[in-house]
Amino acid sequence: MSVKAFELVPAVERELLMGDKARINIECLECCGKHLYVGTNDCFIHHFLLDEVTTSKGRLTYSAQKLLHKYLGLKKPVAELRAASALERLIVLCDGIVFLVDMVTLETVPSAAGGGAKIKGVTAFSPTVQIYMVYEDRVQLVKEVTTPEAQPYMILNYSTGAAQDLFPIQQRGRRPIVKRIGREEFLLAAPGGLGMFANAEGVSQRAPVNWSESVIGAAVCFPYVVALDEGFITVHSMLDQQLKQTLSFRDGHILQDFEGKVVLASTKAVYILVPLPLERQIQDLLASHRVEEALTLTEGAQRNIPKDKFQVTDLHKRILQQAGFIQFGQLQFLEAKEHFRKGQLDVRELISLYPLLLPASSSFTRCHPPLHEFADLNHLAQGDQEKVLRCKKFLITYLGEVRSTEVVNGCREDVDTALLKLYAEQDHDSLLDLLASDNACLLADSIPWLEKYHKYFALGLLYNYNGQDSAALQLWIRVVDGDLQDSTRSDLYEYIVDFLSFCSNVDLVWKYADWALRKDPTIGVQIFTKRPTTKDQSGVLNPDDVITYLGKHSQALLLYLEHLVLERRLQKEKFHTHLAVLYLERVLSLLSQSPADEEQVTRGRERLQALLRESSLYRVQFLLGKIETSQELLLERATLHGKLEEHDKALHILVHQLRDFGSAEAYCLWASSSRDSTYRQRLFHLLLGVYLDRNLPATAQSAGGGGGGELEMAAVDLLNRHGEVFDAVRVLSMLPEGWSLQLLRPFLGRAIRASMHACRTSQVALGLARSENLQLLHDRLKERKNPIFVSEKKGCHLCHNTFSEPDVVCMPGGVPVHTHCVAQRIRDSPTKRQLTNSSNHT
């Protein structure tokens, strides 16, 4: 595909060069800065001064001024001209002779030894390479290297004489083309119409260009290779080897490049091939949507052209951005995103394509000149809604990726606000994630957008993020009450309760807790029960204030007191008493209903009984006074009497009024759970006494229809189940004379086994103590004659403190210890403890 890379501009017209002399032809050229030297077939050298002139339209032209011409006197064409500007000399080849000419006067330079500084016989055939040093007044042979007879292209190391063949010359009889294009790199005309690149090692590091087989000249003006044949000038890219431009040029026979300036000549005139600015070429490629070619050209320029000649960094970024917009318009989103990233695009350039996404307060203006041809997304999509939707999804993805990078520095508010609007419009799941995280969404711009799409929960989150908790709560409450429609969260009421439970603004808690409690007291009370108890006093509520506040919400008050007493386990009498009173009132209320709900009554009594048993902080006499006359709550009365250590009254209620022998046994176990075995034994003996008491009135014995026989059976069961607790001797003295041993067989068997076990255990302990004592006596006798050394620097083996007095005890092995340390050790010994804790059966 073509691109306009060069313009052919006349430099020296025919009339200026030769006037009306029709037979004069140009043979060779040399250009040094602004100075142009032309060698002709009539043995003249013409010297011109070239000035660059820029037209009003920005085109570059040349104005030539003829300074001098000089006849060399050899009557042969001037074959070659080469400038040695540092010496102000021209090296001239004419009639097989090389000599020096002054660049200013064009006079032949005489040598110091007399005569011209000349080398004759240059054109004579010889398979050698001669290397000369050129001075101001002479030319001196340095070295001569013999070359092989064959005539292909070769790499020749003139220092060592080593040669490496490359490939044959293009055509016999046609002048070979060898152009130096860089350090140790050359362009050669190869057979088959190829322009080959080769370095000093004979390796080609670039792909060849495919030019004409009749090429007569070539030059390199990066990134292009310019070739001249009999009718055309062709321009190939060195980056992708493609033909980029073709210019018609008749009768051309010279093409050379001088310090980046490409000069051509026909037989009668001189032209300069002026390269168009790379930026213009790139923009032309982009205008044709040839993105890859534009990028290839830009990157090639960035790698190879000096920065002082071509400012590629900013241009490269801009071209990447333009390429990104072109591919964005073609819905090639992956490629577009990559170019935006590499080009460090101001993301607002992309956002500005989407109507109304940028905040009204944004100061952003689009880049000038513009990076794209689109007015907005509607212009790009031309009414195709599917295309619009795909573009919006791409922007969501792109903004989500870049919002946490340096790309959005300075425009975070614009990016986050645009992302919020897109999320709301597209009903995207990430809207809540955006608002729940650190964000810079502008409240004023976001409110109408979120309201438009009924995203009231999200709007509340935004209010909360901006410190407007009251506005957030009012909005959410309207949604829960049905005044506003938003299906984002079906559990919004629970969310509000949770929000209030963690809210540090106590005034807001008091303000909105009443609404939550009226809605559902069992959930609403979580505002207070889930509230964290931290050392930081901000936002901490006084339980007394909460209890007072909940006075009109009885169910919530009960749940809150349960939280304080049963979960937080606050050790305050008023909380425990208050909770017990509420439990009691609840049970009494259920009992007063007709008919009573047995299931609820049972559940209520279980909670009351559990509290009465487990808590020791409530006011027992106060509660006992409330149920003293209640015949339905006898078990609770018994528990309260137990708290007052009135065990006889408690057991009397359980045995004679309730006839609940299982509860009586459980009572004994509960009342003695944190006491020693003696206390438990006393309670069980008390219960046995209640069972066997013959002094009760007949009405008490016959209550419940069981009579004394039922109590005697209960006594037998008690003894048989808990025989190990009782003192067997005492029990036998309490039992009636008429009881048979068969009834008490399990009890007596367990009692005898327990007594035997205790006796034998005591005997074992006693034997161990005697053995230990005997061993100590033996050690004492053994150590009596040996000295014991005690000093202030020596420490006790048991406590590791030093000795301050001579009284010590010697342990086995001759180790001295403090007397008080030994006494403590004896007190703590297992044998001593066993003897102390042994039963009275020992």
TrEMBL record:
It comes from the Eukaryota. Residues 1-262 form the CNH domain. GO terms for cellular component: cytoplasm; membrane. CHCR repeats lie at residues 531-696. PROSITE patterns: CHCR (PS50236), CNH (PS50219). GO terms for biological process: autophagy; endosomal vesicle fusion; intracellular protein transport. InterPro entries: Clathrin_H-chain/VPS_repeat, CNH_dom, Vam6/VPS39/TRAP1, VPS39/TGF_beta_rcpt-assoc_1, VPS39/TGFA1_Znf. PANTHER family: CNH DOMAIN CONTAINING, TRANSFORMING GROWTH FACTOR-BETA RECEPTOR-ASSOCIATED PROTEIN 1 HOMOLOG. This is Transforming growth factor, beta receptor associated protein 1. It comes from Myripristis murdjan. The lineage of its organism: Eukaryota, Metazoa, Chordata, Craniata, Vertebrata. The gene is TGFBRAP1.
